[in-house]
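FAQ: What does a ligand-bound record look like?

Like this one, built around flavin-adenine dinucleotide:
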Amino acid sequence: MHTRFPLTRDVALVRVAEFTPLAGRAYASRRNHDGGPDGRATTSLLSPAIRRRLISEQEVAAAAIAAHGFVVAEKFVQEICWRTYWVGWLQQRPDIWTRWQADVVRMEALLAEDGKWQRRYEQALAGTTGIDCFDAWVHELIETGWLHNHVRMSFASIWCFTLRLPWQLGAAFFYRHLLDACPASNTLGWRWVVGLQTAGKTYLARADLIRDLSGGRFAVNFKLASEAPPWPADDVPPATPVARVQRADPAARTGLFVTTEDTSLEQLALPGKIVALAATPDIGGTPAPLKHQAAMAMLADGLGRAAHRLGLEPERIDATFGTDAMRDWAARHRLTQIITGDAPVGPVKDRLDVLAPALAADGVTLVRLRRAWDDVAWPHARKGFFPFKAAIPKLLALPPGALA
Ligand SMILES: Cc1cc2nc3c(=O)[nH]c(=O)nc-3n(C[C@H](O)[C@H](O)[C@H](O)COP(=O)(O)OP(=O)(O)OC[C@H]3O[C@@H](n4cnc5c(N)ncnc54)[C@H](O)[C@@H]3O)c2cc1C
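The answer part, i.e. the structure of the complex:
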């Protein structure tokens, strides 16, 4: 399945090697063009792999710089860092994620009360709006689990300003289907389109640009909105400091717990005494089948690599890694420490937050290993991307696979 998107680390490494020659001038000049699902890709298609850390931002950026030098690879490296920036920004304002989830529930309930709105929403989800590009993108998203970045911008703009549907429900549709669905990049990408991230600056989709960047695949005869009024500003909470991570105790009897948030834990400097290995298939929400299958393929690959490195038989913890199941796993192996990858704001973090005190009551410490890349980057994501960019040289100088 999904031959277009690497779902194992080996395939992701091959993709990096194949794409790297294009990550310099070709990327800078052609990256906004989209040939569609059957066309030649102008971007790396690595986002599902990076999202679940089959491969790290650091590895992909380093390959591009080694091939082209920083100046020529800068555009590509900056795009990689956009994701880091969004994740760091949301990490310091988790309320934005919680609020979006509550908005979706509230708005889905409201739909039933407004027939006209409901009809537009159903047409949008079914790809029957009559807007040729939009309808084709809906089918592409459902059938492949991915859309090009410029398409995502145009899609979100048409959803909000031409179809006059709330951004929150569009973000929910993306989140359900995208193989790379990321609480930060998705929620904040939609907020950016409606002017909530850069105050008052919205993105207006243009028919001529869509025609041009799609190589003429779409006629776009439908009259798109000519204005993109900003969504009413919401109060953005002040940035709260990023919580510090705990260090692992190298002498503790330890279990390694793999989640879908970081499927390459075996690449990190793990502490000594690991005696048990388990994974959870939980990815939160109600994912579309393709998204779910892709996440499971990446998890299986990550678990297999960890089992090979540690020489341990992997176990599966139930789908929602409930407290009882984790306590039982820890007790069976007499663990005093469980280490896992640090999960940024999102469903896995929510579960780990509940789990940590329950395990602590049993004398088991839950340690979340944070990559140095995140630890150095996140505190710089307090304001806009421009000041964040100043931290990029620091990130690029980190040793590969370093921990905080
Ligand atoms: C409304 C909207 C929603 C989005 N939702 C997501 C999402 O849920 N998950 C996600 O990973 N990206 C999201 N993006 C960003 C972007 O569209 C994808 O990361 C990109 O299309 C992935 O394609 P690629 O791997 O070929 O990227 P490339 O151009 O090859 O870039 C390499 C990597 O850099 C990162 N990247 C590139 N562009 C961006 C960007 N604009 N913002 C953030 N990271 C970027 C990705 O990790 C990507 O794999 C969203 C953008 C918008 C406008």
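Follow-up question: can I read anything off the structure? Yes, for example: The radius of gyration is 21 Å.
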